[in-house]
Design goal:
The complex is a heterodimer of chains A (165) and B (127). Chain A has 165 residues and is α+β, with helices and mostly antiparallel strands. Chain A is built from 4 helices and 6 strands, in the order ααββααββββ. Chain A has helices at residues 3-6, 16-31, 69-80, 90-111; strands spanning 49-56, 61-67, 117-118, 122-124, 135-142, 145-153. In chain A, strand 5 and strand 6 form a beta hairpin. The radius of gyration of chain A is 16 Å and the shape is globular. Residues 1-5 of chain A have low confidence and may be disordered. Chain B is 44% helix and 19% strand. In chain B, strands 2-1-3-4-5 form a 5-stranded parallel β-sheet, with helices on both faces. In chain B, 43% of the residues are buried. The chains are: A alpha+beta (165), B alpha/beta (127). The A-B interface holds A 25-26, 29-30, 76, 79-81, 91-92, 95-96, 98-99, 102-103, 105-107, 109-110, 115, 118-121 and B 8-12, 14-15, 18, 54-56, 82-86, 88, 104-107.
Chain lengths: 165, 127
């Protein structure tokens, strides 16, 4: 039996309203006073960047934050409270976006059943999704720009065997 | 007062460090538990360590164990500042020797309240 067959899908463990309530706490605290993730979808940009953390436990998958590179930079400037002429570099962007994913992921882990481990944040191209029903996605925007928070199960290993942990 | 902020995220180190500096602390930073031990071994003697849990090289819990195993560091107050919010994790950290626990995300007011509880809020902030 594979991991994907054995565990309950995230859609039975978590709903978008819970993800939104977590984002409602994270945004003002990390991004800035009065800032909010607004759950009203907008058209996706041509290019996106993602930051994510893995959760390993009774449910295994990732919490992925995805936005355009320009939005990632603007988020970073807010998190770091930088003002021109200070320019944030790519390392700052990866770090700040990763920390946002980390705080979202840690709080999402806390509402899942059982004991789980949280991985370290990573950035780049989002990991592939697993089962179609093992996804809880919240599409929205920040300051009118595309941003999504996706809680997704791990894709099965291409060999069809157990996903390596 | 002196504080050592230990977090693998530069952004989070800056956020915590800025709040503590505003409170009047002298702040140094470390990117993981090993780097933090290096700072202590140099002889820089903080009143407070703010410690993330999940970090590469040496995580926050390992750092707490290492500090508590060293009599020379007995006076330092250890506060976890982390996304790990399950009761089991909090109990584990407190049992290892952490004094306080602050869950991310947090506000400057929440950090100030924790410092007040610990008696580590400089007078000019309390006033």
């Amino acid at each position: 039996m594979t991991t994907a067959q054995r565990t309950q899908p995230i859609s039975t463990l978590l709903d978008p309203a819970t993800v939104q309530s977590i984002a409602d706490e994270v945004w003002p605290s990390l991004v800035g006073d009065g800032e909010a993730f607004v759950p009203v979808p907008v058209a996706p940009p041509g290019e996106v960047v993602s930051a994510w953390v893995d959760i390993v436990g009774p449910w295994t998958g990732s919490v992925v934050l995805t936005c355009s590179p320009a939005t990632a930079r603007a988020l970073t400037e807010n998190v770091l409270m930088t003002r021109p002429p200070v320019v944030v570099d790519d390392e700052d962007v990866a770090d700040a976006l990763g920390e946002l994913a980390n705080v979202l992921g840690g709080n999402i882990k806390s509402v899942l059943p059982g004991e789980s481990r949280l991985g370290l944040p990573r950035t780049g191209t989002a990991p592939p999704r697993g089962r179609l029903d093992d996804v809880c996605a919240l599409a929205g925007q920040w300051r009118g720009d595309f941003l999504t928070i996706t809680v997704q199960g791990t894709a099965p290993h291409p060999s069809g065997t157990e996903v390596p942990q | 007062m002196r504080a050592l902020v230990i977090d693998d995220s530069r952004a989070m180190r800056r956020i915590v460090g800025t709040i503590l500096t505003d409170f009047g602390y002298e702040v140094r930073e470390a990117g993981d538990g090993r780097q933090a031990l290096d700072v202590l071994e140099e002889g820089w003697d903080p009143d407070l360590c703010c410690i993330d849990w999940n970090m590469p090289v040496m995580d926050g819990l390992q750092f707490v164990f290492a500090v508590r195993a060293t009599p020379a560091y007995r006076q330092v107050t250890l506060m976890m500042v982390t996304t790990e919010s399950e009761t089991g994790q909090i109990v584990k950290a407190l049992a290892a020797g952490a004094h306080e626990y602050l869950i991310k995300p947090f506000t400057a007011d929440a950090l100030r309240d924790k410092l007040a509880l610990l008696g580590l809020l400089p007078e000019q902030v309390t006033a």
